Amino acid sequence: MRIFKSCILIIIAVFTSQCSTEKNTTIHRGFHNLHAKYNGYFNANEIIKETYNEFLNSRKENYNSILPVFPTPNKVESKSWYAPMDTAYRKCELVIYKHRMPHAKKGRNRKQRMVQIYRR
């Protein structure tokens, strides 16, 4: 059992250490797609949650009127959301930039495919 676990760890270490954006194989694309999607999504989602919780904690409720189920900021309150949303956008952009893979199709075939897509 001990040998089996160490073999599994060695195999995992070999696969993860060999993942480069220069290699365009199925394993490498899968690795970088997984990390780009979930790392960027997690970081952006945490920033958005934190901003929304700060908005909810600073909000004063009027209990003499109907309370909203999902309160949203008005125009004045939404200005404080610009910087955190921009930070979330930049973090996602950076993760996508670091994990991007080279295009497999270049040249004439790629241009023909783009023309076909735009004609639909």
What does this structure look like?
The protein has 120 residues and is mainly α. It has one domain. Helices cover 68% and strands 0% of the residues. It is built from five helices and no strands.
Q: Mean pLDDT, nearest integer?
A: 76
| Estimated helix fraction | 55-70%
- Gyration radius, to the nearest Å? 23 Å
Structural class: mainly alpha
Number-wise, the strands total 0
Proportion in β-strands: under 5%
pLDDT below 50 for ≥5 consecutive residues: which ranges?
A: none
Total helical segments: 5
- The figure for the number of domains is 1
Largest sheet: none
What is the string of helix and strand elements?
Answer: HHHHH
Termini separation:
57 Å
What is the overall shape? elongated
What descriptive keywords fit this protein?
single chain; 120 residues
Structure at a glance:
With 120 residues, the chain is mainly alpha-helical.
Give the topology:
Layout: H1 2-17, H2 26-58, H3 75-78, H4 82-98, H5 108-119
